[in-house]
Amino acid sequence: PYAGPSASEILKKRNEFLSPCVFHLYSKPLNLVAGKMQYLFDENGRRYLDAFGGIATICCGHCHPDIVDALVNQMNRLQHSTVLYLNHAIADFAEALASKLPGDLKVVFFTNSGTEANELALMIARLYTGCHDIISLRNAYHGNAAGTMGSTAQRNYKFNIVQTGVHHAQNPDQYRGVFGSEGVKYAKDVQDIIDYGTCGRVAGFISEAIQGVGGILELAPGYLPAVYSSVKEAGGLCIADEVQSGFARTGSHFWGFEAHGVVPDIVTMAKGIGNGVPIGAIVTTPEIAKVLSYHGYLNTFGGNPVCTAGGLAVLRVIEKEKLQQNAFVVGSYLKEQLTSLMEKHQIIGDVRGRGLMLGVELVTDRQLKTPAKVETLHIMDQMKEMGVLVGKGGFHGNVFRITPPLCFTVEDADFLVGVMDYTMSKM
Ligand code: PMP
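That's the alanine--glyoxylate transaminase sequence above. Prediction below.
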């Protein structure tokens, strides 16, 4: 039994001593005290099905025993900074990670977060090409440091920006975009930016394969190959932000970009890579990585022995428990079930995504696609009361984000859909 402070005591301290921008998902914030695989427990021992996974952070399950063992064993042996000395945990994980990437992508730089990984990728693109201009997509989220906030393109997350030389291209949004699912048509905007907004040469292009914070929007098919070709022709590097869509989440592939048939020059990752411990990384080619050999890039804790020991355990669990296949099978089933709810509930405007990275967009009018903001909050709150946690996102905050731990089962999917159905019926 939990003997710690109550939710209201924690909330009081949080209000007094923590940043005013921490936000809670629910009208009555949850006090979580334990986790086990796809379940979370509050201070009263009440169990919740976790269909958000701390924003796609938990890929193998909360407190997965193999990962906890790897972390504890390494902690007992040695925790240290990443730089200065040799340690096998760091090298072993780099080797294992490189083996998951296609082509010549095999040099790893470790960081502590997704923001740091993207900052590093943008810096490398600029150093390597000698150019400054970066193209990213409207509705993207890439981080909250000055440079990544510049490439992020949602006003909710932009306030301290180094935006010089950043261009935001039209989003290949299959639900609201003017060209529907015709990816190649949206790609023309990137070529236009290169032709009319730069000197004709750029440092690079960065995008997610499925926009997570942006509301689980999978880029329209055909978009990435056309854009990668324009960017490469302009001398730029193509960066794939796999912070949410990586590590087997999309089911059909290990990385989100693979579904689009492209090979990036730099892949950035975080969240799922550590199943909850703070670690991020970029992987690039030896030729591109060389640009940093002339500079002293230093990151004290990025990829330290404990986090990399955890990361290696994550890769082993994904393999051993066939989590990619599970994400494919359970994710496809869940998407089907959610789609069939559309017949019953007019409020569902769109169901989308891939594997266990799914979105349900709520609208008050299917024709006009008017965002159902208040209803989304209400349904989310009610689902929590019934023991199911989903996330929310999209520019208007009207999209449920379903990104559970990849050990999610068909029974979990049925429970989630049942609870969503019941809650919508009670609206
Ligand atoms: N890229 C993407 C696609 C993300 O979703 C996020 C976090 N939401 C980041 C980068 C930044 O990662 P972090 O919060 O670890 O800095």
